[in-house]
Amino acid sequence: MSKQELVVLGQSDENGGCCPGLVTTPLDEDQAAELAKLFKALGDPVRLRLLSMIASRAGGEVCVCDLTPAFDLSQPTISHHLKLLRQAGLIDCERRGTWVYYWALPATLDRLAAFLKTSQTAETTA
Amino acid sequence: MSKQELVVLGQSDENGGCCPGLVTTPLDEDQAAELAKLFKALGDPVRLRLLSMIASRAGGEVCVCDLTPAFDLSQPTISHHLKLLRQAGLIDCERRGTWVYYWALPATLDRLAAFLKTSQTAETTA
């Protein structure tokens, strides 16, 4: 699968930020288009629940077989939502035998968090 | 205008967080539905540009008359996008004479940032 969309957030930014912060300067059209794709991927309750199930899992990864029973949705529908999260660079996956295993990509989540954050707090990276 | 949707983020949370953090515990259906509305509001390039123009403005507020010239869109279309941002609790506004003035609501932005952030850094609130 193409990972073209994984690079949308300006990964060369040394500060780990994506684009200028929201309170720093107005976004240009390209930056806004790229970020909007990511927020759109988050703008669905099923995808948010899937992402939180994956991101909060101790051990860091989840078998798709553990995700689908939580939803009253078909496997193809769940797979479609997972694909959109993956295309946005929010999760990644690997097939092992019968099952596909998913994990969150914290760099993307943290870049979005840094973009949204308005209060400039003193902060030390752990 | 109803501000019903402004309370979706669990403002009673003393930590200023909205719901559990994404990496903390899976969201329940209600939490996911509420957060998805907010991310959906951010999931459009025009709305993201409007929000960044408003949030980054020195002085804290922007006349709608300064927003519309930046877009090749009709005034009603801009107003519609602003309304969606307002319904999500991301901005608020006030009419003064001829014009409407907009400002960002940092509490909502910071709650979303806290929700997305995966790295638990030592942090002191300024």
How would you describe this protein?
Chain A is an alpha+beta fold. A three-stranded antiparallel beta sheet of chain A has the order 1-3-2. Chain A contains five helices and four strands; from the N terminus they run H-H-E-H-H-E-E-H-E. Chain A has a domain at 29-116: Winged helix-like DNA-binding domain superfamily/Winged helix DNA-binding domain (Arc Repressor Mutant, subunit A). Chain A is elongated. Chains A and B meet through helix 1, helix 2, helix 5 and strand 4 of A and helix 1, helix 2, helix 5 and strand 4 of B.
Outline type of chain A: elongated
Low-confidence stretches of chain A: 1-17, 122-126
> How many H/I helical runs of chain A?
5
% residues in beta strands of chain A: 5-15%
Sequence of strands across the biggest β-sheet of chain A: 1-3-2
* CATH fold title of the domain at 29-116 in chain A: Arc Repressor Mutant, subunit A
The rounded distance between the terminal residues' Cα atoms of chain A is 33 Å
Which chain pair shows the most residues in contact? Answer: A-B, 50 and 49 residues
Assembly form of the protein: homodimer
CATH architecture annotation name of the domain at 29-116 in chain A:
Orthogonal Bundle
Averaging pLDDT over every residue of chain A, what do you get?
A: 84
Q: How many strands in all of chain A?
A: 4
- Listing every helix as H and every strand as E from the N terminus to the C terminus, the arrangement of chain A reads HHEHHEEHE
CATH homologous superfamily of the domain at 29-116 in chain A?
A: Winged helix-like DNA-binding domain superfamily/Winged helix DNA-binding domain
Helix content of chain A: 40-55%
* Major sheet size, sense and barrel closure of chain A: 3 strands, antiparallel
What radius of gyration of chain A results from the CA coordinates?
A: 16 Å
**CATH class membership of the domain at 29-116 in chain A:** Mainly Alpha
Which structural category fits the helices and strands of chain A?
alpha+beta
